[in-house]
Specification:
Shape: globular
Family: Belongs to the globin family.
Order of helices and strands: HHHHHH
Structural class: mainly alpha
Keywords: Heme, Iron, Metal-binding, Oxygen transport, Transport
Largest sheet: none
Radius of gyration: 15 Å
Number of strands: 0
Helix content: over 70%
Distance between the termini: 22 Å
CATH class: Mainly Alpha
Strand content: under 5%
Number of domains: 1
Organism: Otolemur garnettii (Small-eared galago)
CATH topology: Globin-like
Pfam family, one: Globin
GO biological process, one term: hydrogen peroxide catabolic process
Oligomer: single chain
CATH architecture: Orthogonal Bundle
């Protein structure tokens, strides 16, 4: 459960990201694929060369899903149910990859937002994204 202050931090960061979702998302995926190359196994169309258009497109979709989670942070389970079904039943993504994605997203946020991304914001986003990951992995059971 997020406190009122944590919710405010999440919204403050989301407001800073607004309008730059594709760029943040593309950097997130590029960082994930670079640091954890085994995660590329779920993206056979990417091949050996990472195409900027594909990264921007998937980055946009990823951050759109985060935006839904931000908008419905009080009801993540219902809001993310279709996404959880997709990843668990159709794509069969290893659930540990969600934690790797969270780590990379935190680095992207910190590198872009720098001093604006306070310790309190980092903690709030870590808690929030961990909640998102829990919801996305519930369908695996």
């Amino acid at each position: 459960m997020l406190s009122a202050q944590e919710r405010a931090h999440i919204w403050a960061v989301w407001d800073l990201i607004a309008g730059h979702e594709a760029q943040f998302g593309a950097e997130l995926w590029l960082r994930l694929f670079t640091v954890y190359p085994s995660t590329k196994a779920y993206f056979p169309k990417l091949g050996a060369c990472l195409d900027e258009t594909q990264l921007l497109s998937h980055g946009q979709r990823t951050l759109a899903a985060v935006g839904v989670a931000v908008q419905y942070m009080d009801n993540l389970r219902d809001a993310l149910s279709p996404l959880a079904d997709l990843h668990a039943h159709m794509l069969r993504v290893d659930p540990t990859n969600f934690q790797l994605l969270i780590q990379c997203f935190q680095v992207v946020l910190a590198s872009h937002l720098q001093d604006e991304f306070t310790v309190e914001m980092h903690a709030a986003w870590d808690k929030f994204l961990t909640g998102v990951a829990v919801v996305l992995t519930e369908k695996y059971r």
